[in-house]
Amino acid sequence: MKKLKRNVCVYCARPFWAGYSGLDHLLKERYRFLCRVFDNVKVFFVTPTDRTCPLPGATAKIPRKLIAEDIVAIRGWCDRNRIDTHYAFLDQLAGIIQHLPGLKICEISDVWHLRHEAFAEFGYEHGGDKHAELASMRAYDYVLTVNPIEADYLRKNGIEGARHLFPGAFFEAVKPTASVAPVGMIGALNHANEDAVSQLSGLLHCVDEFVLAGKICDSPVAQSLPRDKVTRVGLVSSVRAFYENVHSVVAPVRFGAGLKIKVLEALAAGKPILATSHSVAGFPAGISDLVAVRDDPSRWTERDLANAAEVHDPCSQNEYVNEFFSDSALRREIERFI
C-alpha cells in the first residue's frame, strides 16, 4: 500500500517505546501504524529528565515550565524538518502544539473527566475537570479517541474535530502452548481493574487455574487472591505470550472509559471471551455474537465460561478484527480527515 506524503511528528512526554503497560503497547502499535501509513514520521520527546528517545526525531529536556524560547526552538526544529502534521500522544503538550503551524492532531486513550465521573459513581474520588479538559482539546484540529461513543460525546460538547480511531490488532490468533490451559485476565493498575478482580471470587471456585497479568497484580485485592488458584505473573514483556498460555479470557470491568484493549487483544488472539456489557461498549456492531456478555461478574459461574466457549468462533473473530482493526480499516478512517 502506497504511503501518504506527510511529514508527521509524534509528540509525547511518555517513553512508550520502553514500557510494558497496556497504554504503552497501544502507543507502540499506533506509532508503528503511523510509520506504515506516512512516508516520514519523527518523534519529539519532551522530558524533564536526562532520558532520550531512541526513535528518529529529537528529545527536548525541559525541566521547568514552558517558556517562549522553548517554543521558538521547537518551531525552528519543525521548520528544518518540514513538519506539516503534529500528532500528540495524549493531551499533555497542547502548550507546545498550539503554537506550531500545520495540522494538529491529538490522540487520547480515554476522556479523562468521563473516566473520573465513572470512578466517582463507584465510590472513588472524582478528580476530572471537564471544562479544563475540553478547553485543552480546542488547541487541536482533530481529537482522536479509541471509543466512538466518546467521540460522539466530545462533538456534542463542542469539540467539532472529535473522531474515533480504533486501536490496531496487535497480533494474529494464537494457540495455547499447554494441553490444559487456564482462564486469564490482563490489566493495568487502576480502580476499574481492582474492582474487576474483586468480582472474581465466585468464578475462581469453578476453575482449576487462573492467570492474572499486568500491573494489576500489585494491587492488594490481587495479592489477596488464593495462591492455590491464581498465578500472578505481573507485567509481561510479550502480550502475545500471555495469550499463548491461557485458554479463555475474562473482562469483568464494570466502569471506566476508553475501549477495553484486553477484549480486542483476546479477539485478535482468537480466544473465548466472557465479559461485562461495559467491557464491550464502543466496539462495532457484531461484538455480542463473538463474546459471551453477562453483567454482575460476582455471579459468574462455570456455565458462563461454557457460554463463552459455545459462542467462540475464531474465524468470525478474525474477520471482525480485520474488518474494523486492521491497517487498511484504520487507514480508511485516517484518510477521511487527512
CATH class bucket of the largest domain: Alpha Beta
CATH superfamily of the largest domain: Glycogen Phosphorylase B
Instruction: Bin the helical content.
Output: 25-40%
- In total, how many domains does the architecture comprise? 2
| Cα separation of the termini | 17 Å
How would you state the average pLDDT, rounded? 93
Oligomeric status:
single chain
SSE arrangement, N to C: EHEEHEHEHHEHEEHHEHEHEHEEHHH
Q: What is the topological layout?
A:
Elements: E1 4-12, H1 22-37, E2 38-47, E3 57-61, H2 68-80, E4 85-89, H3 94-97, E5 103-108, H4 112-121, H5 130-137, E6 142-145, H6 148-156, E7 162-164, E8 183-186, H7 191-198, H8 201-204, E9 210-213, H9 220-223, E10 230-234, H10 239-244, E11 248-251, H11 261-269, E12 273-275, E13 292-293, H12 302-311, H13 314-325, H14 327-335
Parallel strand pairs: 1-2, 1-4, 2-3, 4-5, 5-6, 6-7, 8-9, 8-11, 9-10, 11-12, 12-13
Helix pairs in contact: 13-14
Question: Could you characterize what this model shows?
Answer:
With 338 residues, the chain is an alpha/beta fold. The mean pLDDT is 93. The protein folds into 2 domains: 4-169 and 326-335, Glycogen Phosphorylase B (Rossmann fold); 183-323, 3-Layer(aba) Sandwich (Rossmann fold), CATH 3.40.50.2000. The protein has 14 helices and 13 strands. It has a 7-stranded parallel β-sheet, with helices on both faces. A 6-stranded parallel β-sheet has the order 10-9-8-11-12-13.
